[in-house]
């Protein structure tokens, strides 16, 4: 199968690409190596992909999804059968200070992707647990209203879901939107709490703990997330319209303070904390109901937070040569 993966140099994207290569698919990797993120880390992820068994079936294209003509030319040249769209501007806090970049990439870029994907067998795209917004009862179910986003980032992701529904209705394009819940693990994003905490602990720096660590997150290991993405990709929706939304989370929220305590235990150190109020736009708690994903694919996230943190710390120490 020929699969085009946008955001292939990103955290989730490079794991998904690796899984597809491992089973013999042809992977057409797309990424613009956006300098708003850690470009060196993105290049390291690409190098890892290019060193894997089966890497001869991987090609990389430095294309920005906001460039509609260039994206169209790539689709016409490569003829993907299925698409995994993970390219995005990410992060709740940064979206409040530079919303235009989020609009361009997450909404306009997704529109270009939908246009190019007409006729593919299945488009799987990244949404976010942040779309649930204010007033959603826990655990979060996909049939919740999701009409009161607390951040501009969440609003862009909800807009993507609505556009995908329209393309399913008008064009018959099969789409699956995956609402990811706090993905963490090796090769993770350096701007997210797990990596921020880990680096600060190793360097002996104080940790800014927003919401005084009481906020809950449904931490989900990237290996489970990549497995979920591939399983969903293999099972296009068949409804009318061919459209669905699925939570990808463990269904077991953990406080930030408890997550930090696990890191402290595995590193055998203690954090110096700087308790701060919660940031505007952030949900107090995220909690997935993962039953729809299990019903659709037979898969449920398996890696416990205890095991996931152990894997993350082991990788970090190995990378650091410690």
Task: Tell me what the structure shows.
The chain has a single domain (2-184, 220-250, 288-302), classed as Rossmann fold, CATH 3.40.50.720. It is built from eleven helices and 13 strands. It has helices at residues 11-22, 39-50, 68-78, 92-95, 99-116, 152-171, 193-203, 222-233, 256-267, 291-297, 305-319; strands at 2-6, 26-30, 58-61, 82-85, 122-128, 175-180, 183-184, 207-210, 216-217, 220-221, 243-248, 254-255, 273-276. The strands form four sheets. Strands 3-2-1-4-5-6-11 form a seven-stranded parallel sheet, sandwiched between helices. A two-stranded parallel sheet has the order 7-10. A two-stranded parallel ribbon has the order 8-13. Strand 2, helix 2 (39-50) and strand 3 form a beta-alpha-beta unit. Helix 3 (68-78) runs parallel beside helix 5 and helix 5 runs parallel beside helix 6 (152-171). The N and C termini lie far apart (40 Å). The relative contact order is 0.13. The model has no long low-confidence stretch (mean pLDDT 95).
Summarize the structure.
The chain has 322 residues and is α/β, with parallel strands linked by helices. The protein is 42% helix and 16% strand.
């Amino acid at each position: 199968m020929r699969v085009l993966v946008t955001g292939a140099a990103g955290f989730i994207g490079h794991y998904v690409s690796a899984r597809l290569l491992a089973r013999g698919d042809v992977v057409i990797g797309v990424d613009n190596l956006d300098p708003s993120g850690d470009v060196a880390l993105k290049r390291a992820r690409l190098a890892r992909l290019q060193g894997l068994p089966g890497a001869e079936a991987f090609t990389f294209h430095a294309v920005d999804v906001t460039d509609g003509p260039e994206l169209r030319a790539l689709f016409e040249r490569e003829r993907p059968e299925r698409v995994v769209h993970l390219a995005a501007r990410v992060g709740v806090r940064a979206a409040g200070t530079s919303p235009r970049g989020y609009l361009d990439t997450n909404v306009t870029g997704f529109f270009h992707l939908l246009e190019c994907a007409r006729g593919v067998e299945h488009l799987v795209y990244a949404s976010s647990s942040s779309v649930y917004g204010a007033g959603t009862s826990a655990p979060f179910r996909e049939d919740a209203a999701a009409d009161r986003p607390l951040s501009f980032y969440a609003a862009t992701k909800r807009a993507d879901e609505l556009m995908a529904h329209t393309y399913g209705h008008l064009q018959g394009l099969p789409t699956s939107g995956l609402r990811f819940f706090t993905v963490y693990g090796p090769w993770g994003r350096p701007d997210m709490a797990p990596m921020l905490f880990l680096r600060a602990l190793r360097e002996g720096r104080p940790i800014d703990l927003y919401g005084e660590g009481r906020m809950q997150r449904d931490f989900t290991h990237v290996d489970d997330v990549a497995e979920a993405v591939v399983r969903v990709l293999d099972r296009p929706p068949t409804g009318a319209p061919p459209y669905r939304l699925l939570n990808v989370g463990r269904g077991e929220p953990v406080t930030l303070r408890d997550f930090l305590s696990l890191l402290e235990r595995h590193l055998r150190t203690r954090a110096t904390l700087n308790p701060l109020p919660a940031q505007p736009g952030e949900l107090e708690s995220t909690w997935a109901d993962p039953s729809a994903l299990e019903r659709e694919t037979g898969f449920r996230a398996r890696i416990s937070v205890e095991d996931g943190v152990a894997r993350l710390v082991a990788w970090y120490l190995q990378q650091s040569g410690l």
